[in-house]
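subagent[fold] <- orchestrator: predict structure for attached chain, return tokens only, no commentary.
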Amino acid sequence: MKKLTGEEIRQMWMDFWKGKGHDIYPSASLVPDNDPTLLWMNSGVAALKHYLDGSEVPENPRIANAQKCIRTNDIENVGVTARHQTFFEMLGNWSVGDYFKEEVIPWAWEFLTDEKWLGLDPELLYMTYYPDDDVSHGLWQKVTGLSEDHFVSLKDNFWDLGAGPCGPDTEIFFDRGKAYQDLDDDDPEMFPGGENERYLEIWNIVFSEFNHMPDGSYEKLKQHNVDTGMGLERIASVLQETPTNFETDLLFPLIKEVEKLSDGKKYGESKETDTAMKVIADHIRAVSFAVGDNALPSNEGRGYILRRLIRRSVMYGRRLGIQGSFLAKLVPIVADKMEKHYPELKEKEAIIQEVVDREEKRFQETIADGENIIKNKIAELEESGENSLDGQSAFKLYDTYGFPLELTEEYLAEKGFSVDIDGFNQAMEEQKERARAARKDQGGLAVQSTVLGEIDVPSHFTGYEEDVTETKINAIVYQDEISQEAPANSKAYFIAEKTPFYGERGGQVGDSGKLYNLDGELLGYIRDTKHAPNDQNLHYIDTVQPISVGQEVRLEVDSARRRLIRNNHTATHLLHRVLKDV
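subagent[fold] -> orchestrator:
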């Protein structure tokens, strides 16, 4: 097995898939662009949803990348478990209606086991598959030549986020050996796919074969996709033979720097010390990348997440005996380590340090406020004769002031008081339930439709020269099907041979207006204009009279509305420029 650095693994991934005809995409920003369903870019596929659901067609249907991601839904596990992180990199490759199982499974095996690439021992690899997916099972048998005990059928191997593309997946596990197996050999979870530390999942390959329809039914997709993901930190831990992700070269330099800053504390001396150093190393990576992508600490949304990450780091720093501001000193470690693939981080290093340092100093004042609250609570307990702080108050200290429960317990224990842990946990669960309820509305991919992608008729934009154009209709989509006509009083889409209507792009919304025949009779109201997958301007129309392909028409833009949109769009850019300069 090769000893590869994180940087070498990332580059090897890119080189491998480029050799298989893939376009290599740069990582998208952590701050999602034009996607209100996401707070952060949280997976590799999140940046490519518009291709997988068919709303856009890529120039090359083969894509690979390394996507920076942030997930904070289980932040309490960071530093406690071996692999929970708020920031991580996801290596991915995609086929958008191109290759499928027959190609990607042999390629996956090649990348994992060939000495030119990762060179893993085949006998240490195990594959899970969906029970009904005989094709994947058969391909793994044929490609690997391994005994049947290396293939595990699991009903959980079906990737489904609700409405949208979904399908079976196959996961690849690495056997880290008996050293990572609990003493209890009868553990029912001790198998590839079970909850254990021995069999480590290193790669997931999803085969999008179905559309999960809004009514709950499943339909076969016209366009099959492949969507894969391999966590860089996780595969690095395998190749570098580290017990957790935190000892890899991607994170350990940060931990060693925290050691230098701490009051004589050493990594490995205690669980509490290790957890504190892991949390700080993880959080400063997340904060550095997020601020580098122009996110800023605030009291809501993603800004609140950043503020919380910084405050958690400060609190854990205090446990290590670190006095004063220290997080900004760690930013150059992150920037230097990631500079080759993410040069923008080094370019913005000084700005990131300034933001982090300002927020950290601000929190030092907040800590004093929190300590005063605790002192007041202790005085109230002494006066009332009670011996325990209520759970809601403890949770407010945690949620609003960033005080970990353990720190609140320490403050109170020094004065002979305890904390209502059950009440705290109940408040925590109520918050999680609110978050889960909010996430239900976010959804995954849109239901895939390839109809618009099949339309290749031309459409020329004339809107820079005129607001009115005489032309003809050369394509109509009615009831999600390509049609020769759309009836009166219906909703439809159409593409014209030429059009003055601007399609939404670059932050400027699409034009609206009216459609007439050449006799001046109103045919319908154009409510919006978008870009179709093949880059035609697509008109959304509420028809008044029937319209048909080949019909000669007159398109009239709502000129007054366009002027206002154009002014607002320009003013927005000017405002952004000034804000950046200031």
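orchestrator: received. Logging for downstream: The radius of gyration is 28 Å. Confidence is low (pLDDT under 50) at residues 439-443.
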